[in-house]
Design goal:
- The complex is a heterodimer of chains A (727) and B (183).
- Chain A has 727 residues and is α+β, with helices and mostly antiparallel strands.
- Chain A folds into 3 domains: 210 residues, Aldehyde Oxidoreductase, domain 4 (2-Layer Sandwich); 150 residues, Aldehyde oxidase/xanthine dehydrogenase, molybdopterin binding domain (Aldehyde Oxidoreductase, domain 4, 2-Layer Sandwich), CATH 3.30.365.10; 306 residues, Aldehyde Oxidoreductase, domain 4 (2-Layer Sandwich).
- Helices cover 29% and strands 23% of the residues of chain A.
- In chain A, the strands form 8 sheets. Chain A has a 7-stranded mixed β-sheet with strand order 11-12-9-20-16-17-19, with helices on both faces. Chain A has a 6-stranded mixed β-sheet with strand order 14-23-22-21-15-30, with helices on both faces.
- The longest helix of chain A is centred in the first third of the chain and has 28 residues.
- Chain B folds into 2 domains: 75 residues, Ubiquitin-like (UB roll) (Roll), CATH 3.10.20.30; 64 residues, Orthogonal Bundle (DNA polymerase, domain 1).
- Helix content of chain B is 30%, strand content 22%.
- In chain B, the strands form 2 sheets. A 5-stranded mixed β-sheet of chain B has the order 5-4-8-6-7, with helices on both faces.
- In chain B, strand 6 and strand 7 form a beta hairpin.
- In chain B, helix 3 packs across helix 4 and helix 3 crosses helix 6.
- The relative contact order of chain B is 0.13.
- Classes of the chains: A alpha+beta (727), B alpha+beta (183).
- Chains A and B meet through helix 6, helix 16 and strand 29 of A and helix 1, helix 2, helix 3, helix 4 and helix 5 of B.
Chain lengths: 727, 183
């Protein structure tokens, strides 16, 4: 920011100070830009700023309330608590005085450092804490500096004589103390605001807030119905939108009964989209009734004729054909390991499509101005790469003319990082502008026009030498989705000298998307299962087998030892039960999981009795929240491993709601889930997804121990279990 | 000449050419000890009445077929799924309680236990979970683990908060909890 801009901003600040008691501090590399505005109105500031220089902001009220803006989505993972904790730690704020609001959607200002060189707002990949940790600490330190600077100047003392303590600036030499809120009347913007390096920030042993289990800030409103999700928005003159989409992804509609539909009660307008027909109606029930009356002919699409069960045969052929796919890993020389191997192990692992099933069906509310020049959007989104969720693009307007009102997400799980449910609402809203349109997907819409974790086949080949040491691992994934099937294929924490991994893509025209932990679910299932296969064959203990593989990865080994200790791995297990272990790295967190299962040999039902998990996630901001994420991740993992399967027949999705796509209910929870967090001063890593992909390998390995048989096709439904047991 | 048409739940009176008046019945509902008059088509579910007609947004839509429990309300004290309940079935003086009316000052033992255990994650299903659990405790103040499972099994939670739901209900019922956590 140039000097003249700072001056201008400073002048503005004085104007604002006359106008009210609260000020917003925009803290950036080049200076401070205060304005009387709420967190969500950063885009509406009326003076020039250089947003690239601004990294975070906070509002201070004269009663001492500190409002910290949360730049990430809150989808249950606790960002509304953990991110402001990081900021408040460095600002040395009194946590009891902290309030939290969602920030504006301005990636240039509020983007994360977690996405390489791109500064974007995207709540995905368990990267929120990881990507914002230093951004928020530095911004918090600058806020603290500004307060100290103002007080030092007011009291006429050098800044290095003042300090802070939990929401107060103190000057020990004169025994003076002032609360942050009392600084407002003489808050002084330093002409040069220092940038703080990591070295100048608090060291972990001085953390006062980080590492404490404060009650989550979002929970009180989630106990009395007050928490607002996008689906809860009601606006004056609002109308409703519903869309009928094809059961065959990509099919194009031809509406055959437009006249009859338009005559139906409550129908205001119809919008034919490339992939569906939208109805705008006065009431939701009228729209839903009209949706049932639609008569649509659907075109063929790439997905037409596709049968997911049969695809596995194709995958096996592709795996057998040889030929190179896209190489993901190439360490050492797997081919020579294969040539020199004493023994070669090979196995195929399969996984069906799974659906996100976030509890709040997709929805959004869009209002387009009568002249079409601007729009407002109310939505719960994981955000993403596209400015303002693609709404400016579909409306042909500038991003700055689209205002986003971020709401809580009733689950994200990857699905809400897409924008289809927002852009299509904008198209409906444009048709009836300026009336706001609330678009609701029914559960059936959400499931059948979902974007799933891809089905795939993993062909693994492992080699051992004469001492039984694992010398090589080759991993080929066959399926659609490329990176969606590639994540989790690497083994950086196992000492395997020769590794190769590749992706062979077979396209089907089925919509696909990141699903909690992405490819880690299927890939770690395959890797961890094969390791136990080898250990079993060598008559070795699976934990001992991994101990040797982890000998050069002490952090990984520590999670293994801790989990084994928690699960009393070396003690005998109750008759009819067995324990299984799995290890993985996801989003920087290292995790070992151990489960104890039994199997009803009559029905084929697997029951998980206990689950233990030990994790190294670096510095943990909010330990109880980490536990909650691991518990929930394990439950969702169990759900996907034991029962979830979405199938396609003749191009059409075969399931439609929770009756035919069951997810785990409370009757199937374990008796206990115990989590351990290994103390660390490392950079914080992600835990939102770690629990989920641990489950398949742990259960499959317990299954092997209990039955001597291998189960290699997810999910492990009773039918499949019986087939393995009787096979 | 006046003509009437019956189309599904609607009674249409042809008013003039291309103009219709939709005659909607009016219903009286007692919700959270307050009386409401609602004009709606017969067959409209109580869920849409609560949410889109009355703005009581704590009761959530999750599946529409009584499979997830997100829309659980109390009707004369019994837990009921509002998404499959047509309004005409509820207009006879039954006392409806929604999450907004469960507790005026957050001192319901279930709400307190939920807060203590920090149950919610995304929070979307939690109104339904709390209403179901509150109804369970009202009918059985010391449920066994099996009874809790039986009562709560119709309420889905995709975040996987079931371990804490179990613990919270046991705490609210003054029981030792069966859920362990270790650091």
């Amino acid at each position: 920011m140039s000097k003249s801009n700072i001056n201008k901003a400073t002048l503005k600040r004085r104007d604002f100070l006359k106008a009210g008691t609260g000020i917003t501090l925009f803290i950036g590399a080049g200076g401070l830009i205060p304005a009387l505005t709420s967190c969500s109105e950063a885009g509406a500031m009326d003076f020039p700023i250089e947003p690239l220089n601004v990294t975070a902001w906070v509002k201070l009220d004269s009663d001492g309330t500190i409002t910290i803006c949360n730049p990430a989505a809150e989808m249950g993972q606790g960002s509304m608590t953990s991110l402001p904790m990081i900021f408040a730690e460095e600002m040395d704020a009194d946590w009891d005085k902290v309030k939290v609001e969602f920030s504006a959607q301005e990636p240039a200002i509020f983007g994360s450092e977690g996405w390489g060189n791109r500064k974007i707002m995207l709540t995905a990949g368990s990267r929120t804490i990881n990507g914002y940790f230093n951004v928020l600490r530095k911004a918090g330190a600058q806020a603290r500096y500004i307060l100290m600077h103002s007080v030092a100047e007011k009291w006429g003392v050098p800044i290095n004589q003042v300090d802070t303590k939990a929401g107060q600036v103190i000057h020990k030499l004169s025994n003076r103390v002032i609360y942050y809120g009392e600084i407002i009347p003489f808050l002084k913007v330093p002409d040069n605001l220092p940038e703080f390096s990591e070295k100048e920030l608090k060291s972990p042993q001085d953390f006062r807030l980080i590492g404490k289990d404060f009650p989550r800030t979002d929970i009180p409103d989630k106990l009395n119905g007050a928490a607002q999700f996008a689906i809860d928005i009601r606006l004056p003159n609002m109308v409703y939108g519903v869309i009928e989409r094809g059961r065959i992804h990509g099919a194009r509609p031809t509406l055959n009964n437009e006249t009859a539909l338009r005559a139906l009660p409550g129908v205001i307008d119809l919008v034919v989209l490339e992939y569906g027909v939208g109805i705008i109606s006065t009431s939701l029930e009228q729209g839903l009734a009209a949706k049932k009356s639609l008569n649509i002919s659907w075109s063929d699409s790439e997905a037409s004729g596709f049968n997911s069960e049969e695809a596995y045969t194709t995958y096996e052929q592709v795996a057998a054909e040889g030929g190179q796919g896209r190489v993901v890993t190439n360490i050492g020389d797997f081919k020579s390991a294969q040539d020199q191997a004493t023994k070669i192990y090979s196995a195929d692992y399969k996984n069906d499509y799974v659906y996100h099933a976030q509890m709040e069906p997709l929805n959004s509310i869009v209002q387009v101005a009568a002249d079409g020049s601007s729009a407002e959007v109310w939505v719960g989104s994981q955000q993403g790469f596209t400015p303002k969720f693609g709404v400016p693009q579909v409306l042909g307007i500038e991003p700055r003319n689209v205002k986003i009102h971020m709401q809580y997400l009733g689950g994200g799980l990857g699905r809400r990082s897409m924008t289809d449910f927002i852009t299509e609402c904008a198209l409906l809203a444009k048709k009836v502008a300026p009336r706001p349109v609330k678009l609701i997907w029914t559960r059936e819409d959400d499931l059948t026009y979902g974007a799933y974790r891809p089905m795939s086949l993993q062909r693994l080949i492992a080699t051992t030498d004469s001492s039984g040491k694992l010398t090589g691992l080759s991993h080929t994934v066959i399926g659609d989705g490329d990176n969606l099937v590639a994540s989790g294929i690497k083994n950086e924490f196992y000492d395997i000298p020769n590794q190769s991994a590749q992706i062979k893509t077979v396209k089907h025209g089925i919509r696909l998307k990141h699903w909690r932990a992405v490819g880690h679910g299927p890939n770690k299932f395959a890797i961890e299962s094969l390791l136990d296969d080898i250990a079993y064959d060598q008559n070795k203990d699976p934990v001992e087998f991994r101990r040797i593989l982890m000998q050069h990865s002490p952090r990984a080994l520590a999670t293994l030892e801790k989990a084994a200790e928690m699960a009393k791995w070396n003690k005998p297990t109750n008759p009819g039960r067995a324990k299984g272990v799995a290890f993985l790295e996801r989003s920087g967190t290292l995790s070992t999981g151990i489960c104890e299962i039994s199997i009803d040999e009559r029905t084929g039902k697997i029951r998980v009795h206990h689950f233990w998990t030990a994790n190294d996630a670096g510095i943990v901001i909010h330990p109880d929240n980490v536990k909650a994420q691991l518990e929930g991740g394990i439950i969702m993992g169990m759900s996907s491993v034991l029962m979830e399967s979405l199938t396609i027949n003749n191009g059409a999705v075969q399931q439609s709601n929770f009756l035919d796509y069951p997810i785990l209910r409370i009757e199937d929870i374990p008796e206990s889930i115990e989590t351990a967090i290994i103390k660390s001063t490392g950079h914080p890593q992600g835990v939102g997804e770690s629990g989920t992909p641990l489950v398949a390998g742990a259960i499959a390995n317990a299954f092997l121990k209990l039955t001597g048989k291998r189960i290699r096709h997810l999910p492990f439904t009773p039918k499949r279990v019986l087939k393995v047991l009787n096979g | 000449m006046i003509t009437f048409h019956k189309i599904g739940p609607y009674i249409l009176r042809k008013f003039e050419k291309h103009q219709f008046i939709f005659i909607m019945p009016t219903y009286s509902l007692n919700i959270n000890n307050k009386n409401y008059q609602v004009e709606a088509d017969a067959g409209t579910t109580v869920l849409w009445i609560l949410r889109e007609h009355l703005g009581l947004m704590g009761t959530k839509y999750g599946c529409g077929i009584a499979q997830c429990g997100s829309c659980t309300i109390h009707v004369n004290g019994n837990p009921v799924r509002a998404c499959v309940l047509p309004i005409e079935g509820l207009a006879n003086g039954q006392k409806i309680v929604t999450i907004e009316g469960l507790s005026t000052d957050q001192d319901h033992p279930i709400i307190k236990a939920w807060e203590k255990v920090q149950v919610p994650q995304c929070g979307y299903c939690q109104s339904g979970q709390i209403m179901q659990a509150a109804a369970l405790l009202a009918q059985n103040n010391s449920p066994t683990r099996e009874e809790i499972i039986q009562s709560m099994n119709g309420n889905l939670c995709r975040c996987g908060t079931y371990m804490r739901i179990m613990e919270a209900i046991q705490i609210a019922a003054g029981q030792p909890t069966s859920v362990k956590s270790d650091e």
